[in-house]
């Protein structure tokens, strides 16, 4: 099971996203905001950690201050615009939330329906993640197999398991998946070609399964960005009761053939 937000929170699919109107995107964005706020409230109320409480209080105080500040007597309050235009960041955020699938930077740039580039999308996503960190949000936009997703941060995994009843004991892996996972764990970062050299020549489908379950993640080297390298995730450590990769058992010889 991946660390994505619950599937039932998604309000639609991007199958026909290219035909979405501004009004539909705006409605999707408003649903996304409401659902994200609900996730924040649930997590911050349940976590009980001092740092999380402080972050929640700071965000709440800022919101309350904005809501309670009366308009200046010298400047009459203007009526809010009925349909304010969505910013590029809002469209990207809404698409990632309601899409239900990973989206590449190029696909998101196309959905913006303007003179936008993949680099612009990547920079906007970086800005969104900085804002999420500043506001103490429990989720982030993460690049993985197939593109970008809006996912829950790793440190909230145990809490998500508690809320939705999904724990490590429910994970079932085939012998093949366990062998590929072990190969990656001991040789990471490793490419699919590297796994073939280790005796797993047809690991592609299994790698994708492990990526979906958030047991593996993808890294890319600057020198060769087109070749994905596979590494284990914090969830892998949690599932196998490891504090770090240093705690992996070290047999003298590992045979995968």
UniProtKB/TrEMBL annotation:
Keywords: Cell cycle, Cell division, Chromosome partition, Cytoplasm. It comes from the Bacteria. One of its GO terms (biological process) is cell division. Residues 63-84 are annotated as: Disordered. This is SMC-Scp complex subunit ScpB. It comes from Schlesneria paludicola.
């Amino acid at each position: 099971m991946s660390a994505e937000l619950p599937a039932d929170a998604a309000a639609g699919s991007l199958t026909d996203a290219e035909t979405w109107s501004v009004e539909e995107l705006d409605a999707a964005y408003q649903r996304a905001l409401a659902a994200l706020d609900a996730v924040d409230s649930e997590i911050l109320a349940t976590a009980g950690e001092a740092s999380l409480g402080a972050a929640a209080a700071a965000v709440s105080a800022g919101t309350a201050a904005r809501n309670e500040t009366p308009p200046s007597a010298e400047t009459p309050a203007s009526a809010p615009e009925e349909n304010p235009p969505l910013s590029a960041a809002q469209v990207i955020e809404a698409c990632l939330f309601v899409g239900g699938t990973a989206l590449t930077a190029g696909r998101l740039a196309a959905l913006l329906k303007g003179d936008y580039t993949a680099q612009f999308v990547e920079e906007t996503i970086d800005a969104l993640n900085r804002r999420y960190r500043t506001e103490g949000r429990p989720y982030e936009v993460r690049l993985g197999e197939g593109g970008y997703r809006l996912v829950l941060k790793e440190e909230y995994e145990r809490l998500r398991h508690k809320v939705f009843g999904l724990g490590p004991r429910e994970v079932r892996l085939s012998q093949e998946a366990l062998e590929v996972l072990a190969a990656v764990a001991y040789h990471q970062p490793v490419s699919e070609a590297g796994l073939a050299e280790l005796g797993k020549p047809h690991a592609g489908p299994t790698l994708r399964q492990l990526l979906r379950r958030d047991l593996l993640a993808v890294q890319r080297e600057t020198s060769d960005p087109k070749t994905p390298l596979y590494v284990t995730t914090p969830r892998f450590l949690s599932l196998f009761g490891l504090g770090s990769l240093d705690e992996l058992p070290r047999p003298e010889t590992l045979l995968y053939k």
